[in-house]
Structure formats: C-alpha cells, structure tokens
Q: What sequence folds into this?
C-alpha cells in the first residue's frame, strides 16, 4: 500500500516489535486472516503492515478512533463500488477490529508499487481531488471538519507534555487557538462537500492493475464534511515547506481548476497546514532523534514566521 524508502524512518521495512505483533495477531485471528510473515511497511500516524499470505494491508490505529475507521471503510466502499472512484479499497465485508480501548485495526487491498517508478505528482492529485469534490453527498454521516482539534488534544495531553517544554506547549496551544479563531471567520468561496481532509501527494499510490486511472488516493481516516479549500492547501504547502516549488502548486491548480493562492484566506489556511504538520513528529518525538529534530525545526520555523524548507518523512 505504500512505497519503501530505506532512508525514511517511517517506511523502513523493519520487523514488527513484540507489542505490534501481538496486536496484529489478535486482530487477524478475529478477522480470519493469517499474519504469518507480517512486516511493517509504514509507522507514522498509523501503523501499516503487509500480510503476505493474503497480499492485504492492515492499518493499526492506536488512538482509539473506531468511528473514524468505520467512516473510512464506508466512504471508500461507496466511492469504489458505487462511483468507481480511484480510492484505496478496503477488504469486502470486514468491519474494523477493536482490539482494546485505544487500538482499532482495519484491512485493505495491497497495491504493490512499481520498482524505480517516480511517485505520482500534484497534477494526479489535482484531478483526483476535483473528481471527489464533484460527487454527490455520500449515504454516510460524515463528521464535521474540526480544524486542529486533534493537534490541540495531542499538545495538551501527555504526548505534548513529554515532547515539548512547558513554554513551547503553552505557545503552541495559544497559536492553535489563534488560528482556529481566524478560520472561524473565513468565507469559503468553493463551498462545503465531502472532503478527504489530508489530500497530499504522499497519499497517492500507483494502481498497476487499472486500465483507466493509474493513480489511487488513500488514507481516508480524516474524511469529513468541510470546505473544499482544505483539500487544496496541502499542495501549496508542499511547494514551500517540502521544496516542491512553484510548478508543483501550478500543476495542481491547473488540474483542479482553481488557484487557491489568489484567495484572501490563503495565509490563514497555510498557517493551519503548518500546525497540522506538527502532529506527526510530535506523536513520534519520543521514538527517535529524527522525529524530535523535525519537530524542533518545524516549531521554530512557525514561531519565527520563517517560510524555509522542512525535513520530510
């Protein structure tokens, strides 16, 4: 379901540790799947494992988001089965497996990525987001978009207290509140619809079995009802923060049909995306120096109002 990048600590094909292996085994037993030879292929917001016996991907969410997991399954089934939309597909008939109060496991189709192929780009993403935003409302009750709520909870909780100084923790909570207030008074010219919620190019995969659309949009845990602009900002943000450059944003704008940077709410949305991108390294800062260094760089850049390039995982 995801590409291997050996120099990337979130995608290093490490063996599963005993804790994750036990969680995965319990979930697989309850789902009627074989976990023999399971291996870790991605560990960031979620833990993503390959089950070679079935060529199936297991996504382990350790934050107890059972409702989010069910929404992701229902939305993607509606997208793929009713509309033929190129989304990553969950396994038929399997509901989320709730292992304990904080752990939910879902099972998905595995999409092997062609060796040596370039990653899908912002033009692919722009076309997929445009198609998504043109669909009718799904027959699923979507959560309302609540910007930065999860980051606020993460920062205010034990993870934030462990990863941040008390001064940084207070500053970040104040900044989150400030950006939330700014977002609350924006007019959204593109209107509201079902949105992906985290539509960045890292969630794209090649679909080598497709004769129609060779690129899929994955990772639907943040699907919700919200302003269309939310799905546009990641490409402009990547152009600046991850060194993709102006052509990256322009290609997305041309494919989607709208230049987000021409909107007067753009700076607020960019500031929101900056904060969103703290959640990953904040969540993993205690697991390695690379994550802690990325968190430090990003937070310092935001505090200094510096538009420099960030490390990417």
A:
């Amino acid at each position: 379901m995801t590409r291997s990048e050996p120099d990337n600590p979130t995608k290093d094909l490490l063996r599963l540790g005993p804790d994750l292996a036990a969680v995965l085994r319990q979930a697989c037993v309850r789902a009627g799947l074989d976990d023999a030879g399971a291996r870790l292929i991605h560990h960031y917001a979620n833990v993503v494992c390959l089950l070679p016996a079935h060529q199936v991907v297991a996504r382990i969410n350790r934050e107890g988001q059972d409702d989010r997991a069910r929404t992701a399954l229902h939305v993607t089934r509606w997208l793929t089965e009713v509309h033929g939309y190129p989304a990553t597909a969950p396994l038929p008939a399997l509901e989320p497996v709730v292992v304990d109060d904080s752990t939910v496991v879902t099972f998905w189709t595995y999409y092997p990525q062609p060796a040596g192929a370039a990653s899908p780009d912002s033009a692919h993403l722009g076309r997929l987001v445009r198609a998504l935003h043109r669909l009718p409302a799904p027959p699923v009750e979507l959560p309302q978009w609540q910007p930065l709520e999860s980051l606020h909870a993460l920062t205010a909780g034990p993870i934030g207290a462990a990863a941040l100084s008390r001064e940084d923790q207070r500053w970040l909570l104040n900044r989150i509140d400030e950006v939330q207030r700014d977002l609350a008074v924006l007019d959204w010219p593109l209107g509201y619809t079902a949105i992906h919620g985290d539509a960045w190019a890292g969630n794209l995969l090649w679909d080598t079995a497709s004769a129609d659309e060779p690129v899929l949009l994955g990772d639907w845990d943040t699907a919700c009802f919200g302003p269309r602009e939310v799905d546009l900002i990641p490409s402009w943000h990547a152009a600046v923060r991850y060194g993709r450059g102006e052509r990256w944003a322009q290609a997305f704008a041309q494919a989607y049909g709208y230049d987000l940077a021409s909107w007067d709410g753009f700076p607020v949305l960019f500031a929101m995306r900056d904060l969103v991108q703290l959640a990953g390294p904040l969540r993993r800062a205690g697991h390695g120096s690379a994550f802690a260094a990325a968190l430090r760089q990003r937070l310092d850049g935001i505090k200094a109002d510096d538009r420099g390039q960030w490390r990417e995982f």
